[in-house]
Write a structure and sequence with these properties.
Helix content: 25-40%
Largest sheet: 8 strands, mixed
Number of domains: 2
Radius of gyration: 23 Å
Strand order of the largest sheet: 3-2-8-9-10-11-1-12
Distance between the termini: 52 Å
Order of helices and strands: EHEEEEHEEEHHEEEHEHHHHEEEEHHH
Number of strands: 16
Number of helices: 12
Length: 379
Amino acid sequence: MTAAVDTAVLDRDGLGSLVDALVGDGRTVVGPTVRDGAVVLAELASADELPYGWGVELDAGRYWLVPRDDGAVFAHSAGPQSWKSYLHPARERLWSADRTPEGDGDVSFERHTPDAPAYAFLGVRPCDLRAIAIQDRVLTSGRYSDDGYGARRRGALLIAAECTEPGATCFCVSTGGGPAADPGYDLALTEVIDDDGHRFFVRVGSEEGARLLDQVPHRDADTVTEAVARASVDSARDRMGRALPPVDLRTLLGGSLDADRWDDVAQRCLTCGNCTLVCPTCFCTTTEEVTDLTGDHTERWQRWDSCFDLDFSFLHEGPVRPSARSRYRQWLTHKLSTWHDQFDSSGCVGCGRCIAWCPVGIDITEEVAALHAESETEA
């Protein structure tokens, strides 16, 4: 990296200038904003659309938007969306085919060129930064690469927002992460609000990040701002709302296929797939054909799918996993155990979305703890 500075400080107006610079560069800026009673991700035209003065309270199956007195912009936990919605969209056309007008029975095919706007993601949480890195491995580093994801990812600029106030459903530390941003960002912001004002401690992570910082008003990082920022992040590490048990989860889940706990959770699980929809790393898709009424034109679309869907494991005589027990077990075991076999890491970053947005409040940390307790009893 050839950045002139490694750290800096932006004030509140500087954050607005940062968004203006991104828009001026022709980038599609996506960041958090308040809409429909939640902090959601959406296209931003200016920093005025950011959720200044809003926070959230979370619990299993519950999400509340709450006002704050300090005007903080990033003091909220992850909302229902992740950046997956933009890099790996829920529905994407792959190709189309048309009968030739000559009526000779020939068919012409056209491969769809994926949309690849120059994204700038503002406010990427450290858990989501790790999730993007996981999806990079899943979708671009294997034998079969997702061209659409790759094109969008290559053009995306990532501005992380380190966590200073974890939510009640957060458990990133117990997945090997934490509230500090890992490498992979272009800029990392840590929000500081104290008697010296509202400002952001900035760390530069790439040459593109350094170039962007040069376009906006900033000042050299002072020791007080840096110390407060780092202390706030360190404090957040000790205030996680939940935790996975400190055991070898890969071995635990792999050895719990016949556990009685699966029956217990199956009685509560609706197999609705909400957990896979909000998960920032779930990547499964299926394809569907869409034709016009004449039969002369058809399109193939890729769309998100879920291992909770009966059709997901459907073979010629029916689904391989017909029960709620088998489908929930597949999801959790893959996420925490067999994901290692495929991608050399866990598939969970501890964002807690699957807990907050489960309509019946199933808690992944509670289920894993129960499986561990059952395994200890049988040992």
